[in-house]
């Protein structure tokens, strides 16, 4: 066998080790949507024995944004004085009546950007417009937005705000264990969130719930390594934090990035689609940066909009319902005409299931 | 919610565009001359002709590897060629926005001339309109192409047969990424150039090598190879099995796609042809492709299978299988 | 939950770097990793470098993936 077979050999070996080690039915959750996407793309579930189940979690920022906040973004886009800037992910997510893409087609100025810094440039170039950035994302993304707000403050930009929907992952993980709705034997922890927060936050999960937590990356062999570590801990009755993504994640995370976030944002309670109001699970701008808060500047009022009656994204996000078990899946709800965010976002559990696993 | 206005996703080459064409455009077409979905129509007359038309609205008008003029000729020449035909005549209609620099027009027209020459087509009729500033975006171009079939039975997306080999002439996604990067909105500076190229010559050598064994040809433009294969599979009522490891690769495209969270299979091409050819001529056709300037990286990607009809599946490099789905809507960079 | 890619820093100007991912070049902000130097691998997300990677492990992984792809 040539040396170049190393990767495939490694993955095959991990698959065998997982099968040999899993001595009982086990269910793990990949918290992160990018993991769900990669699992689908590489077809990794096919390499797992029947007694090892992998469930998708709430780690898709677009998916957990409640309908009411999406309605806010749409409402802002509809105002004549605004330019709404957004990551591409958000464009097609349905609010209660339309989407940002709909608003754009009707003449609203909606611009897809790749970096939060681009919103600042757009604000500078359009001094007569109000530029709003739809700030979604977990711990990975918040530092980038924090830096942008910091720059905006230094530049004295008065036509730039953010609609802040940032959320924190560990509280959601704890809620899932706390509720006990789904039996979970451990977490595949989000690699890129961990880059920022490090390993420490998972220690409370391990300590309080005796649930193994393994940080891993997004290549096929990373995920298989992470799963093997989980299976092994589980089989041996251990619960520890392990880092299988040491090429990127340091146990201390990125303290400098956390400091920037802390200087701009403070922790607040937040509403998650599917999970409800979670204490201490969101971020809001600190009082000294409140002038950059779009909800305040534009006097946005909670819309109280509910979710589509056929949409079960909430249950899917808690892994209570699998995408294929939802009656709307592939029928009333498709990537072309999504009812809920899990079918829109590439990271959504439904989109991944529809794209890669349907009728395979 | 059903759509009551046109959105960018309706032009994305995916399912939404397909639906719009079926519901709003095809009803006005004469079904005697084809069922829609083909790259060009094959029409009766003193001799059969192949006819197609296409409109080009690329922004920016100049991008690494080409410009609007080259694209407008290649797009139409390639669509004619996809019916196993030799493109011969071309018309060109231009809609130019007031204020557009004449230097740009000149550049576009120089590319039109050069590309026509390379493709062996004659530009025989044209039209030129100027619209008020603000009601267009630089230059829009429409080209209509006429060609003659090289085979008694034209190649067709309805003719892929179980057992056919699926061939492709090079790596995917170069045009789409080059244009995306050239817009300068995504902080991405690519080293990738558009693959924009007239494929009349390549197709002629393929047809010469494979004769009637060349069943279906299709150029994977908007929506990329994922859309193209799904279109053929649906039209022919067949399935497809691909090998992920067999695809020709471009590391620049892969890097760009990784950064933007895109799938190269869904990104547009303007110089690629997918061919479904009978097993007995596969070797000859592939050899002919590899010998051609625009086919050096050609590869056998997989096979057409009986069914399930319309399903395109791929065996990953790990030996697992996944679906290659029809893309939906607009190609959007994502961060999550 | 976040598309982030390993990239090599090839140029630094103030708080902005030029980085390379396979053949694609892009700008990345360095405010979150002020220690980054030319030649380092960084993890890039939404236009920002989030962490300086362990060079040895990053290169090993890249080589492993590269091999696997070329083999196929």
Summarize the structure.
The complex is a heterotrimer of chains A (360), B (336) and C (72). With 336 residues, chain B is of the alpha+beta class.
Key terms for this structure?
heterotrimer, A: 360 residues, alpha/beta, Rossmann fold, five-stranded parallel β-sheet, four-stranded parallel β-sheet, 16 helices, C: alpha+beta, SH3 type barrels, five-stranded antiparallel β-sheet, 1 helix, 5 strands
The tally of structural domains of chain A comes to: 2
Number of helical stretches of at least 4 residues of chain B: 8
CATH topology of the largest domain in chain B: Phosphoribosyl-aminoimidazole Synthetase, Chain A, domain 2
Domain count of chain B, please report it. Answer: 2
CATH architecture of the largest domain in chain B: Alpha-Beta Complex
Approximately how much beta-strand content do the residues of chain B carry? 15-25%
The residue fraction in helices of chain B comes out at: 25-40%
Structural class per helix/strand content of chain B?
alpha+beta
SSE pattern of chain B, N- to C-terminal: HEEEEHEHEEEHEHEHEHEHEEE
Gyration radius of chain B, rounded: 19 Å
The residue fraction in helices of chain A comes out at 40-55%
If you compute it from the alpha carbons, what radius of gyration of chain A comes out, rounded to the nearest whole angstrom? 21 Å
Question: Pair with the most extensive interface?
Answer: A-B, 50 and 36 residues
Strand order in space, largest sheet of chain A: 2-1-7-8-9
CATH C-level class of the largest domain in chain A is Alpha Beta
Q: Structural class of the secondary structure composition of chain A? A: alpha/beta
Give the uncertain stretches of chain B in residue-range form.
Answer: none
Order of strands in the sheet with the most strands of chain B?
Answer: 10-12-8-13-11-14-15
What's the order of the H and E elements of chain A? HEHEHHEHEHEHEHEHHEHEHEEHHHH
Can you give a write-up of this model?
Chain A has a five-stranded parallel beta sheet. Chain A folds into two domains: 11-58 and 179-242, Rossmann fold (3-Layer(aba) Sandwich), CATH 3.40.50; 63-168 and 253-297, Rossmann fold (3-Layer(aba) Sandwich). Chain A has helices at residues 6-21, 33-42, 61-64, 67-78, 100-105, 117-125, 142-155, 169-179, 191-197, 200-209, 220-235, 255-264, 294-297, 313-317, 341-344, 349-357, and strands at residues 26-32, 52-59, 82-86, 109-112, 130-135, 160-164, 186-189, 213-215, 241-243, 265-272, 276-285. Chain A is α/β, with parallel strands linked by helices and 360 residues long. The two termini of chain A are 30 Å apart. With 336 residues, chain B is of the alpha+beta class. Chain B folds into two domains: 37-149, 60s Ribosomal Protein L30, Chain: A, CATH 3.30.1330.10; 165-323, Alpha-Beta Complex (Phosphoribosyl-aminoimidazole Synthetase, Chain A, domain 2), CATH 3.90.650. In chain B, 29% of the residues lie in helices and 25% in strands. Chain B has eight helices and 15 strands. In chain B, helix 5 (200-210) packs antiparallel against helix 8. In chain B, 56% of the residues are buried. Chain C has one domain (5-71): SH3 type barrels. Chain C contains one helix and five strands, in the order βββββα. Chain C has one helix at residues 55-71, and strands at residues 5-13, 16-21, 24-29, 41-45, 48-52. Chain C has a five-stranded antiparallel beta sheet with strand order 3-2-1-4-5, with no helix packed on it. Chain C is globular. Classes of the chains: A alpha/beta (360), B alpha+beta (336), C alpha+beta (72). Strand 9 (188-189) of chain B pairs antiparallel with strand 3 of chain C.
């Amino acid at each position: 066998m040539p040396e170049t077979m190393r990767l495939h050999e490694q993955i095959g070996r991990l698959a065998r080790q997982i099968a040999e080690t899993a001595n009982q039915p086990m269910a793990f959750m990949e918290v992160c949507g990018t993991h769900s996407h990669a699992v689908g793309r590489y077809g990794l579930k096919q390499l797992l024995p029947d007694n090892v189940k992998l469930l998708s979690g709430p780690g898709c920022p677009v998916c957990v944004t409640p309908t009411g906040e999406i309605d806010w973004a749409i409402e802002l886009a509809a105002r004549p004085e605004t330019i709404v800037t957004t990551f591409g992910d958000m464009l097609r997510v349905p609010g209660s009546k339309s989407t940002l893409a709909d608003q754009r087609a009707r003449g609203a100025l909606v611009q897809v950007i790749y970096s939060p810094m681009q919103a600042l440039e757009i604000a500078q170039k359009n001094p007569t417009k109000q530029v709003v950035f739809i700030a979604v994302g977990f711990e990975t993304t918040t530092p980038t937005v924090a830096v942008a707000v910091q720059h905006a403050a230094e530049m004295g930009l008065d036509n730039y705000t953010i609609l802040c929907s940032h959320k924190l992952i560990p509280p959601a993980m704890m809620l899932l264990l706390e509720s006990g709705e789904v039996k979970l034997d451990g977490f595949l922890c989000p690699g890129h969130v961990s880059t920022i927060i490090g390993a420490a936050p998972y220690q409370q999960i391990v300590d309080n719930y005796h649930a193994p937590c393994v940080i891993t990356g997004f290549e096929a062999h990373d995920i298989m390594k992470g799963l093997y570590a989980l299976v092994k801990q589980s089989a041996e009755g251990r619960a520890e934090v392990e880092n299988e993504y040491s090429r990127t994640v340091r146990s201390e995370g990125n303290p400098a990035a956390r400091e920037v976030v802390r200087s701009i944002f403070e922790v607040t309670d937040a509403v998650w689609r599917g999970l409800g109001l979670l204490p201490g699970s969101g971020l809001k701008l600190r009082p000294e940066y409140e002038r950059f808060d779009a909800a305040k500047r534009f006097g946005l009022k909670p819309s109280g909009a509910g979710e589509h009656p056929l949409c079960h994204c909430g249950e899917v996000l808690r892994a209570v319902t699998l995408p294929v078990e939802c009656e709307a899946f592939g029928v009333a709800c498709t990537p072309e005409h999504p009812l809920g965010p899990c079918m829109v976002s590439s990271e959504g559990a439904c989109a991944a299931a529809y794209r890669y696993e349907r009728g395979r | 919610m059903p759509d009551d206005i046109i959105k960018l996703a309706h032009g994305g080459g995916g399912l939404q565009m397909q639906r719009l064409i079926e519901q709003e455009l095809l009803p006005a077409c004469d079904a005697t001359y084809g069922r829609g979905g083909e790259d060009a129509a094959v029409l009766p007359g003193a001799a059969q002709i192949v006819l197609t038309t296409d409109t080009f609205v690329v922004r920016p008008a100049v991008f690494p590897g080409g410009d609007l003029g080259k694209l407008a000729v290649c797009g139409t020449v390639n669509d004619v060629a996809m019916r196993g035909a030799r493109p011969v005549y071309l018309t060109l209609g231009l809609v130019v926005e007031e204020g557009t620099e004449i230097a740009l027009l000149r550049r576009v027209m120089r590319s039109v001339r050069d590309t026509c020459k390379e493709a062996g087509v004659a530009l025989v009729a044209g039209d030129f309109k100027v619209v008020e500033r603000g009601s267009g975006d630089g230059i829009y171009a429409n080209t209509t192409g006429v060609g003659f079939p090289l085979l008694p039975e034209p190649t067709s997306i309805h003719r892929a047969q179980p057992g056919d080999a699926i061939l492709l002439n090079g790596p995917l996604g170069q045009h789409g990424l080059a244009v995306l990067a050239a817009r300068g909105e995504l902080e991405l500076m690519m080293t990738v150039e558009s693959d924009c190229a007239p494929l009349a010559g390549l197709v002629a050598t393929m047809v010469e090598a494979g004769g009637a064994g060349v069943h279906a040809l299709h150029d994977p433009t908007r929506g990329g190879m994922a859309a193209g294969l799904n279109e053929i599979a649906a039209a022919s009522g067949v399935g497809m099995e691909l090998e992920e490891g067999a695809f020709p690769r471009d590391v620049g495209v892969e890097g760009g796609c990784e950064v933007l969270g895109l799938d190269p299979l869904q990104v547009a091409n303007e110089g690629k042809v997918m061919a479904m050819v009978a097993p007995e001529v596969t070797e000859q056709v592939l050899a002919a492709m590899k010998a051609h300037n625009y086919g050096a990286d050609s590869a056998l990607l997989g096979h057409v299978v009986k069914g399930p009809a319309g399903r395109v599946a791929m065996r990953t490099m790990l030996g697992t299988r996944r679906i290659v789905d029809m893309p939906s809507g607009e190609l959007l960079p994502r961060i999550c | 939950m976040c598309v982030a890619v390993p990239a090599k820093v090839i140029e630094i100007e103030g708080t902005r770097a030029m980085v390379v991912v396979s053949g694609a070049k892009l700008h990345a902000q360095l405010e979150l990793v002020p220690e980054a130097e030319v030649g380092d691998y960084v993890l890039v997300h939404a236009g920002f470098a989030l962490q300086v990677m362990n060079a040895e492990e990053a290169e090993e992984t890249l080589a492993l993936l590269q091999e696997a792809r070329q083999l196929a």
